[in-house]
Predict the structure.
Amino acid sequence: MGRPDGNVRISLQTLHVLEAFLDNPTDSLAGSDVQKRSRLASGTLYPILLRLESAGWFVSRWENVDPSSAGRPRRRLYRLTSTGLSRASEIFARFARGVPA
């Protein structure tokens, strides 16, 4: 889906996704958790997660759970990379100073 160059178009929706991770940046979140925190529709959320992962801001993995034991499908878990944390922190700091991203 593109090569990791770190350049990402920053929209308001992208900021909501990044914000969902910044409270606990080392946590892995399922897409449904991000959706609840960001209040974005899945059709908006998942393309953003894919774009951020392609840019190297996130890594993802399938959770290690047996779907029949859990009584639900496995979830895809997303986690900020050190690059993603650095870039997200920089973007929010710029907004705090009143400088556009």
